[in-house]
Amino acid sequence: MKKRMKTFLLLLIVVVLFGMVAIFISKSFQYEILIEYKEEQNKAIFYKGKLFNYYVYGIRDRNPFNMKIVHLSKQKINSPLVVHNSLESYIVFFTSNTLEIFSTYGDFITSEEVCLENERIVSNFVTDVTNDAKSEILLITGNEEREFGESMLIYCFEGKLEKLYEHSLSEINPWKIQAADVDGDGIIEISLGVYKKAEFHPVMAKRPFLYSWAEDGIFPKWRGSRLSKPFEDYVFADIDQDGMDELISIEITLNGSKVINTYKWKGFGFESMSESGEFEDILSLRVLNNDINKVYARVKQGDDLHWISINYNNGRLFSIEKIDNYIERYIVE
To answer: If DSSP codes are grouped into helix, strand and coil, which group holds residue 3?
Structure first.
């Protein structure tokens, strides 16, 4: 009897300790991105987050404690993205040089290397650039020891990964790829953030280039020399809800503070619409697919680091809704 009691107490202690460890880990885990399916209880929830000093990709169901870790890395990882083809939707996780593709139920489909071992994925984006109602995966890749990329690749996924396009961009030092419809014609443009000199501004600087897509590749639509101020990053969103995506940038003022500026396409280039007040620092910008008219920014003022939402109304840009626990939530229809 005493032996059974000791065994029972030992098991109880183990269960309690395991539960305490599980609660500690769950409390320590910080979600950064959640991809969920609207009104689909049997489909998985995909996430990116941070646990202590590690970045994590994972899958879970509606129970937040039922979590599966797909990838763990000390190196910062790109956001997971949703890919649609003619029949299904898929989730793509991006490691340093590999795409890992899962079904919407969390089942592993395939893992494909898209660059060499000494190369990395610098930037990624998913959009329907070919205008065929299916998604393409846009990538910038380059040497893992360089800040900037060297090549642009476009893939589609129809049961297997297929490369549609590859183009060397080493002469313009690309560091970001994304897409937008800047003129409202329903056709997607590709934007490359590059680092190079320009004819009318002959110094090395970050610049946003714009390209159109044709069957045989990309061709320049706008390769402007600069924005109104030196900038660090940019995104696109239709913040004034007119059917045209505006360019929203993080820019540096003369005194070293930062502002958010917005630009509208005017046929031959971008024209500034409105500028925010100054912040000590602006670390990043985000646009959610289920809230496409609102931009979120992570800002710093003194010791206070938090997220805010950025709105545009009646020709004026303003920030509202300080957000303490911001998580990017992508709702898939």
So the answer is: helix
Contacts of 150 (CB under 8 A, 6+ apart): 141, 142, 143, 168, 169, 170, 174
Burial class (CB in 10 A: 0-12, 13-18, 19+), 317: buried
Among 304, 258, 316, 264, CA closest to 285: 258
Q: Which residue in the block uniquely carries the two structure tokens 């329907």? A: 128
DSSP 8-class letter at 134: S
Count helices and strands (H / E) in the chain. 1, 25
Mean pLDDT of the chain: 86
Between CA 5 and CA 113 the distance in angstroms is 54
Q: Is the pLDDT of residue 171 over 80?
A: yes
pLDDT tens readout for residues 95-126? 999 999 999 999 999 999 999 889 999 999 99
CA atoms within 13 A on the CB side of 11: 6
User: Is the alpha carbon torsion for 162, 36, 103, 115 positive or negative?
Assistant: positive
b/e 82-93 (16+ beta carbons within 10 angstroms → b): bbebeeeebbbb
Q: Band the pLDDT of 24: cuts 50, 70, 90.
A: very low
Find tokens 């590059």 and name the residue: 194
Residue with tokens 């300790």: 17
DSSP structural state of residue 145: T
pTM greater than 0.90 (yes/no)? no
